[in-house]
Amino acid sequence: MPIDFATVRARARERARETVDRDAIGAGDGAGDVDARATGDYDYDDLDLNENVIDDDVFATHATTVIPGISLCDEFIDEDTARALEARVMREPASSWTMKTRGRRVMNSGGASPSAPYRDEDARKVPMYAKTMMRYVFRRGAAMKEPNHVLVNEYEANAGVTPHSDGDAYEEDAAILTLRGRAMIEFWPSEGVSGGDEGEGEPVVSFVLEPRSLLMYRGDAYRLRHGIRERGEDVVTRTTANARALGLEVGDVIKRNPLGRLSVVFVRKKRADSVED
Ligand SMILES: O=C(O)CCC(=O)C(=O)O
Description:
The radius of gyration is 18 Å and the shape is globular. Helix content is about 20%, strand content about 20%. It has helices at about 5-15, 35-40, 60, 80-90, 120-125, 130-140, 220-225; strands at about 70-75, 105-110, 150-155, 160-165, 175-180, 185-190, 205-210, 215-220, 225-230, 235, 255, 260-265. It folds into two domains: about 1-45, no CATH class; about 55-275, Sandwich (Jelly Rolls), CATH 2.60.120. A six-stranded antiparallel sheet has the order 1-8-5-12-3-2. It has about 280 residues and is of the alpha+beta class. It has seven helices and twelve strands. 2-oxoglutaric acid binds near residues 166 and 185. 2-oxoglutaric acid (AKG) binds near residues 151, 166, 176, 209 and 226.
């Protein structure tokens, strides 16, 4: 039977914080937030970037011991910011997106192809909201250097992304912010180590990515392949590192949001002279 995720999450948090207000929990799934997203009048520029506020090391705070180099922050941004970001992303013209393939489309904020090396002029093409977010990610310690490129992924409910590693065009440091919908991301050994089985078989680690969460992977973990299965629900396994924190058990089934999923990937592209062949 599919999980009633709002209830499960509420239970987990109740255990963690006895004073929690149950009624306040369960928002953020994105399902039911359509009107708010469309009409949200949040001033996106309010995102707090004051020098004295940004004194964080979000990677270290949430680093997993399961696989060094991976860290998951459950609530990286607040609900207003998530709604505003989603609304802003969805205002980009249709021409900014790639053609939808197998239920997934991608937008490169900055215009240049994801595999092209970074050039100074790319900065001028990056919209202000993306620049603000890149700075925020860096200032909160979620990236070792300030990202300079953003990829937005939009998935239909049962779409995914085939196992891959992000390659040599970027520094070995990436962060994925989920804005709408939840899905399980799995990590497998990089090609050559696993024999390239395209992600079949048990992953080394997996995470349920919830709205507003930020997944960071860097160093050796950056070289792992990661992917999201093409299906309408995910099943918790013994490799799901954040299952316990979410009050989930092995075998629990998590239904995907019928409105699909929206994620923003922050990376730092290398310059032409530093890209390896
Ligand atoms: O949407 C996600 O969470 C994963 C995206 C991804 O793996 C990619 O864009 O390379």
